[in-house]
User: Which sequence fits this backbone?
């Protein structure tokens, strides 16, 4: 049993039947459905009678939408541009942390979680892992099943506390854990001697609880730890903007019903083909025999002149049904802002860079929106990591996230365009080298070394020529 199944089963039905709000329960049910559709466990569209063949088909376009969205966002490595030189201590520290936490894998996990459920979470565990003999923060991608956010009643973007719930163990030995990360406001003393709470955050607290058989299912506080920063150890953000809440939107927000309808059409087509794809042979007037069977090497013998043998075949190739299924497929990809490659298969060979971007415009626009949301969160995450390393929180600058071009580029077109820009003085060689993916500093050193080597070879040839001339012409003639 996985931790997610444990949460959906034991935690919801046994441990928290009264304390869980209706909204939270509905959200967990929604998360469960989104997870099922991501993994291809779709609602069965055709009822199957006992001893009847199952013609249900589930073509998992929802999973394909998520995979293509994540590949467009994190398919190429993400780089962080911090202030100062690349070899500055801050840059090396951030690069080391991401390398220790396997940056590419972690970002893809966050992309899948965010694209599926709408809200990714990263928890910072100080000194949570060893890398090359030194302790570094561990970055943990939390599953939305485990996390709920409580915000200020008057400001939905101001988090008051995070609540983490999860279950460990198996069978009767299960134990529920709860972690409450809560904002603590600073207090000031009035002239009258009265203490009042300000709107400034002083620090956060992390309270840990357990509930199991020994506690009769009641929460028992086990520890309280202060988090001495104005920010919490969790960073969350929206996958796609949601103007009416703190939770983001999933990439599958509006396509589940279309996925079900497509599966219904595909399943019905499959059932029709199974029953009617093979021709049914019928005969009349053969004589006294009512039932007959024959093979390919056998002969039919009729006893009357009016005997007839024919085949019953389908009068249609289900063109209208297949066209409707194709329309549903295209609608699903259109609504999810995803490119359906089958619709452009005959155009790929003739596409230019401009034409490719026109076809991908909708997907690129959604990807740009995601880059703003994910980029802001990753920058904030890096800032918090710098503060944990000892940098002053008021001056810590995490720079920016550098994204690469999400689409493949026609290199001939790019080279020609850069060549024209260089010739017209519109761009520097360094900028052109960066656009082509070269490291200008490294290439400049190499070109200098090659030029110096060429000069040395030329001087050696001249010296050899002079020495040879003197030996072959001792009289100087």
Assistant:
């Amino acid at each position: 049993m996985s931790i997610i199944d444990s949460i959906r089963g034991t935690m919801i039905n046994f441990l928290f039947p009264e304390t869980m709000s209706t909204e939270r329960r509905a959200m967990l049910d929604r998360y469960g459905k989104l997870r099922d559709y991501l993994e291809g466990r779709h609602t069965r569209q055709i009822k199957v009678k006992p001893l009847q063949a199952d013609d249900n088909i589930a073509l998992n376009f929802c999973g394909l939408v998520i995979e293509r969205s994540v590949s467009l966002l994190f398919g190429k490595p993400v780089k962080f541009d911090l202030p100062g030189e690349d070899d500055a201590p801050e840059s090396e520290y951030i690069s080391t942390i991401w390398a220790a936490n396997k940056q590419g894998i972690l970002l893809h996990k966050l992309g899948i979680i965010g694209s599926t459920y709408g809200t990714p979470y990263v928890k910072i565990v100080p000194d949570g892992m060893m890398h090359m003999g030194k302790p570094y923060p561990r970055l943990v991608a939390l599953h939305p099943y485990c996390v709920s956010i409580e915000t200020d009643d008057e400001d939905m973007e101001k988090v008051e506390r995070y609540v983490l719930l999860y279950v460990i163990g198996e069978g009767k030995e299960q134990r529920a854990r709860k972690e409450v990360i809560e904002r603590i406001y600073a207090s000031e003393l009035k002239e009258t001697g009265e203490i009042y709470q300000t709107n400034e955050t002083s620090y956060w607290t992390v309270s840990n609880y357990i509930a199991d058989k020994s506690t009769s299912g009641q929460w028992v506080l086990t520890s309280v730890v202060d988090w001495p920063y104005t920010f919490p150890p969790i960073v969350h953000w929206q996958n796609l903007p949601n103007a009416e809440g703190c939770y983001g939107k999933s990439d599958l927000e509006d396509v589940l019903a279309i996925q079900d309808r497509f599966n219904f059409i595909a399943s019905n087509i499959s059932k029709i083909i199974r029953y009617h794809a093979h021709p049914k042979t019928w005969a009349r007037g053969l004589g006294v025999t009512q039932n007959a069977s024959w093979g390919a090497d056998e002969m039919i013998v009729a006893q009357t002149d009016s005997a007839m043998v024919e085949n019953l075949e389908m009068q249609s190739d289900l063109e209208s049904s297949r066209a409707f299924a194709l329309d549903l497929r295209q609608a699903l990809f259109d609504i999810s802002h995803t490119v359906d490659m089958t619709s452009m298969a005959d155009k790929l060979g003739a596409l230019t860079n401009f034409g490719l971007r026109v076809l991908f415009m909708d997907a690129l626009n959604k990807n740009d929106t995601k880059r703003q949301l994910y980029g802001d969160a990753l920058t904030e995450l890096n800032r918090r990591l710098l503060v944990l390393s000892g940098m002053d929180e008021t001056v810590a600058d995490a720079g920016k996230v550098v994204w690469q071009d999400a689409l493949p580029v026609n290199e001939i077109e790019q080279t020609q365009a850069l060549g024209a820009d260089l010739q017209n003085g519109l761009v520097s060689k360094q900028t052109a080298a960066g656009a082509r993916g070269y490291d200008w500093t490294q290439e400049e050193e190499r070109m200098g070394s090659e030029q110096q080597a060429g000069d040395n070879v030329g001087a050696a040839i001249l010296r050899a020529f002079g020495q040879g001339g003197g030996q072959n012409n001792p009289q100087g003639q």
Remarks:
- Residues 440-472 form the longest helix (33 residues).
- Residues 70 and 112 are 6 Å apart (CA to CA).
